[in-house]
Amino acid sequence: METLQHLMVGFGVALSPVNLLIAALGALIGTVVGLLPGLGPINGVAILMPLAFAMKLPPEASLILLAAVYIGCEYGGRISSILLNVPGDAGAIMTALDGYPMARKGLGGVALSISAWSSFVGSLIATIGIVLFAPLLARWALSFGPAEYFALMCFAFACIAGLMGDAPMKAGLAAVIGLSLSCVGLDSNSGVYRFTGGDVHLSDGIQFIVVVIGVFSISEILLMLQEHHSSSGMITDTGRKMFNLKEMAQTWWGTVRSSVVGFIVGVLPGAGATIASAMTYSMEKRLTDKDGSFGHGDIRGVAAPEAANNSAATGSFVPMLTLGVPGSGTTAVMVGALALYNITPGPALFTQQPALVWGLIASLFVANLILLFINIPMVGLFTKVLQIPNWALVPGILAISAVGVYAVHATTFDLVLMSALGAAGYLLRKQGVPMAPLILGFVLGDMMEQNLRRALSMTNGDASILLESPIAIGLWIGVATMLLLPPLLRALQQRRSAAAAVL
Question: What is the tens place of the pLDDT at every residue in 72-104?
């Protein structure tokens, strides 16, 4: 009952005329950013975050804007996947496997509409999950001390390394780089300047906005200049615009299953929509693909990953709000947005800032409904955006990024550092190093260090405190599981494949 009362307060915040307009604007911007190949939700949120702060939006309005952009990007990523066979972001990769073949068969409109419906169902189920489970998790998290928080952050890094498929070492390298960048500046305990090179501009550390705009936006611009996405293969005739009841019934249970799995994966720190969509596509293929139609234009292969990636994206708000640990690279950027307003996410946020938290949760319901209504009828308009040439798109993104970074502290040093980090990010991405772990490492680095120091100071340096509580022990077991289980499963799969090849 108390949760319902809080949710009503949240709807009062989310449905105010200004916040409703902001949610609609964020949903529209997010869809456009999401459909542009390669940009994705992190870039969309990263570019708008400093602009929202520079416009002096209140914190709840800024979060509503960024959350709407986030889930809007997850919606929009499917459009270029289905029509171009070029995923708008990593979470939409699996959608292209069946979406593009459907479009080639003249069923592009059906694929787009069923993906919008599945995205709506996935995000709706995940938002209901936040309402049900986030307050319980927040109350449980109040029992966390420094040792438990340090173990939790180690678990977040283990999730990153363990769930990065065939590149856990590259994910680990990115996380270490992020941790190293977080150490630059004044040590709050000893008062010593670390890794500043004597430059006064670095005395307060590297600003979060500079890092996130540099390694994501600037590096993406360089990649866009190098790899021109051609629209020559774009499907222009999308055929029937709407799925029918038979197609809805055919995909319904797969959509629900994928939504639940996506929410669970999204709650895991560092897992994200990419892993959720890959898991659910494989799951649905095993469960329902009796005739080998997946990969050749099966509508179930479109609905399942779309439900999962939107559910996972929404579910990633749970660890951010309740534990202060980002559930994805995009929520890591949103933690930075809270820091701009001197707000610390975590269990106390539910009691200290209830209007902010519940306004954000209510806005997820609102933005999700807005996205459903704008995505199906406006698909024709959104497809026109795919035809914008890079020579017009790149300068616009660069200008918005530079204005956003400069507006926060008004120093040219930030622009130079942004460019340098962008060049470094470009080189790392060319080698296949993912950037999301880097941002998570940068965000969690300071909190991780402070909690470790506090825990050790309570026992005069005795590290056994890190293993004293049941919560900490459970988290360390989770760390070991996430590090060891994926390579064991991959080795087992390779052995089975080798045995099948011999037979």
Answer: 888 887 787 787 666 666 667 678 778 888 887
361 half-sphere exposure, CB direction, 13 A CA radius = 29
CA–CA distance, 5 with 132 (Å, rounded to integer) = 13
Cα atoms in the Cβ-side hemisphere of radius 13 Å centred on 75:
35
Phi, psi of 192 (to 5 degrees): -95, 140
Please tell me what DSSP assigns to residue 345. -
Pairing outcome for strands 193-194 and 185-186 = antiparallel
Torsion, Cα of 136, 139, 145, 147 (10° steps): 0
For helices 17-35 and 354-375, the axis angle rounded to 10 degrees is 50
Three-class secondary structure of residue 185 per DSSP: strand
Amino acid type, 502: V
Let me know: does 411 contact 228? Beta carbons within 8 Å: no
Residue 260 structure tokens:
């639940």
Packing angle between helix 108-141 and helix 93-104, nearest 10 degrees? 160
Q: How far apart are CA 384 and CA 373, in angstroms?
A: 18
Q: How far apart are CA 148 and CA 141, in angstroms?
A: 9
pTM: 0.71
Q: What is the pLDDT of residues 358-409, one digit of tens each?
A: 898 999 999 999 988 887 777 667 666 656 676 776 787 787 778 767 766 7
The label of the residue with tokens 């939700």 reads 41
Integer Cα distance of 377 and 32 in angstroms = 14
Six token digits for residue 18: 């200004």
**pLDDT tens, 127-165?**
998 888 888 777 776 677 888 878 877 877 776 665 555
Asked if 84 and 112 count as a contact pair (C-beta separation under 8 A), the reply is no
Q: Are 409 and 207 in contact (CB under 8 A)?
A: yes
Question: Which residues, 6 or more positions from 15, have their beta carbon under 8 angstroms from its beta carbon?
Answer: 362, 366
Each domain of the chain, given as residue ranges in start order, spans 2-231+245-502
